[in-house]
Structures are given as structure tokens and as C-alpha cells.
Write a structure and sequence with these properties.
five-stranded mixed beta sheet, alpha+beta, 522 residues, globular
Amino acid sequence: SARADDAWEVYIPGSTIKGAFRRRASQVLRTLWGETRRTAEVIDYLFGVQGQRGAIQFYDAYLVDPKAPDQAWCSMDGVKMNPRTGQPIETAKQDFLFAYGDTLAFQLQLDLQDLGEADLEALAVFGHLLRDFQAGDIVLGGEKTSGFGWVTATIDEVEWLTGATGGISRQLFGQAAFSRAGIWHRLHLERAEAATGLKIFAPLTAERAASRPPKAQAGFVSHREFGGYCGTLAIEVDTLTPTHVRESGEPSYSAALDGGSVYGWDAFSMGPPAAEDRPDQRVYALPSRSLKGMLRQVYTIASDARAESTDLANLNPADSLFGWVGAGANQSIMGRLVFSFALFEPQPALAWYALPYPYNGWRFHNGQWEERRGNGVPQVRIADQWRVFQHAPLAPIVRQRASFQPDTAQANYVRAILPGQRAHFTLRFWNLAQEELQRLFWCVELEPTLAHKLGRGRHLGFGSLRLRILPASYLIDWGSRYAAATEAAGLTPLALEQWRSPQGQGIAYLGELRQSLDAQSL
């Protein structure tokens, strides 16, 4: 810690923030101006280049309240699922520890020096970067496509020192009143004045039209600039049957039974891994990685992505959109989709269930449950490649409980989110072709009689969900996004009906998907 001896402190390195700002500036300017000398000069001026210091100095960002993470640590498990069997691949498991919470705030200082009127264009770029930072469009750290690192910011304080109050000072601050501070003329702005007093949001005019997703020489879609379709889908989740994604870390409940311990698992919430540290009032959610995996499976089928990706020049449609990691150096690429956590607000209704273990052969057939002892879990596959779980009401062998009161060790005790509960999440996307966005739209909403499956107990009727894309969804027009000083500039509402395709145009295995995802029995 920089504040106390023999202590640890969470902070964000200035180099991390600088890299995120530089990446955003590079993407934006390449989108507006292309790979030009003008682009390179502005980026080098703001952030530096070998032998030249940048105009902006980024300091480390420290917590406003250093004790905040004591209450804000959260955990999330991640495990890859075998698309053919629907079972977890234990060797592909990840565990995440992250900080989360409304009170988790960092203080960041940025210094600029030796500015003149010749730097106004570069300052305009910096001003738009600040606006992007405030709007939550600059992401910090790793696991970006799984909802980590997306932050918002506010300008809290501005300190301006100048030798003369004319020139660039007048252009940036208008007729603001300066005071004397030794040899300097000083202007100090705080809070609301700080947010509005710095007038550096000059328009950035687009010199090219980025109508198509940018392609690298190897043929894959590049992240170097923005093109094609970019924007955000605002999505609502409705639970149709009890849904359980298991909490991460320790089980919240345990009881002694027959000389051993039986555990009860709560639904996933934004909480720490240790059960004793979890709050009474929990923020329940569907994890971003679970949502990502659910939609990736449907998109993989709908795009007929059977062929295995071999390298960046030969990516199947699902790996191209959701991301891919291959073998060897420089054989991985980040996805073009970002999933947030789906938060249930207010707190959802929950109930305890005892799921029998081991499974004893019940299956849902012709609209009703049948008992066939001695058989394993029935498996439905599409093209003998992808396993899907059919929708059904809860199996007769599933018992709802009033509370966690185990009476046998031959069961899994879970606290599930009940039907009729709603959660919301966002799905950011960029550099999509029209065909990709149309297919993604179908894979999210499906059709009125279809639904998704998520979480544990899917073979017993758990985990049926319906997703709905909300009118708050929008597309980004980069030509006008930075041509105005307002945050809403360039954001165009997504015409939902134009993207809905009841005929399922461009969807592979449409008949099989309609049959296997049919939810009319619920």
C-alpha cells in the first residue's frame, strides 16, 4: 500500500488506464480518419511514442474508501460445457474473484501540460475520450466480453494554471473568472462546474464511411477500428420454470445427516466466496458467462459452425463472433460481443427443491412425463453434434420444499428462482455484418413459441427462460457520434420489427431448433 506500511490496497495501475484510453482513441480515429498520418500524430501527441512523452500523464487510481473491497469481493465460477453431451469439462474450469458494488469508487488524476492553441484538435479528441469514459465506453482490464471492467466516471475537479488568461484558456473556459496564485492565473472548478466548465468537446468530422466490418489481411474481422453494425441490445429475461445457477464458492447452507454433511446451494448472487461473508440481502443474477455460453450454443447451431477453427484465417462463424483461443502464438481473438450480468431487481422470489441423485430414468415424451427406470438421461441432439434440452414442466420426482430441511443424502438441495421473475442485461456488439446481427437477433429472441435453457436440472424441467429485446436497444452511427458534444449523439434506436425474422431466414437447422426449443408445454 502507498498509504500504510505492511498493508495491501486495491488500485488500478495508471498504465492500465492509459492503455485503455489509447486503445479507444486509436479505434475511434481510425474509424473517422483512417490509418493516416493525422491519426498517428494525434495519438502520439496525447499518449507518447518512443522518445516523446505524451501530453497526458495517467496516475494510479486508488479507492476513495480503501476498506470498500472488504464488503465488495465477489466470486464467479466458469466452466466450459461439452456441446455434444451438455456436461462440464472439468479441465476447462476457471474461478474469478472480482470487486463489485455501488460504493466501489476510485479516484484518478490526469495531468496535461504545455498546451497551446495548436493542440486544440488533440484536446478535442481527449474531450471525447473523457465523455466516453463518463458514459462507460472505456473498459479496463481483462475478461471484457464477460462483463468485467466496464466502468463509468464523473469529472470531480478541474485545476487550470496559465500564464495568460487569453488564447487557449479563453477558448476552453470562456469568460470564467481566474484568480492569482503566485506567477499563475488559476481556475479551480468542482463538481457540477467541473463537469460542464471544460469546453473541449469540439466536433470530430468523419472523413470516411465505415460501412463494413474491418478485415485484417488474414481475413478475420479486426478490432482496430469500428465498422458495420455496432451498438447495444437491452434484454429482459423472464423465468418460465424454476431456474438455478449455483452460487460460487462455498455453499450457503449445510446440515448434519447420517453422520455426514448435506449442503444446500443458493442461486447465484453477487457475493463473496465465503458463506459467512455473504449479506442477508443479496443481489441475485444470472452470470454473464452462463448467458454467453447459452447463446453461443444456439448461435453455433444456427450458423452451422460444425467445422473446427484451425487458425485466425479459418474461423467458423461462432468462433469469429464469440471469440476463439487456438494453439500457438498469435492464435487467439477476442469476441465482438460483451455480456453483462443479468440482475434481478427487485430481489426475486425463490424456493427450495430437492433434485434426486442419481437420476432414475424419467423422461418427458409426447407432452407428459414417463418413468423408465434403468435408463439414463434422454439426450436430444441436432446433427449428432449439439445436445439440446427440451422444455418441460417440473418432473414428478422433483420436490419443492418450504425450507432447507434435508431428509436424504441422495439428493441435491438447491434454492431456485421461481417462474415469473425478471432480470435485465445488456449485450454490446461491434463490427457485425448484417447477416451476423440478424442471426444474433433471432438467437436472442428466438420465436414466440420457443425459449432458452440455462443452469442446473435442465433435464428435469429447470432453467426455461424467454428473452426479449427492449426498445432501449440502439445502433451507433460513428459519423455523427463524435460530431456533437451531447452523449446521445450518434445513438439510433434499433428498429426491432425490422430485425425480427419470423421466417428464420439465414438460420441453419431451423426445423430442428423449432422442435427442440418448443416451450408450448410450459
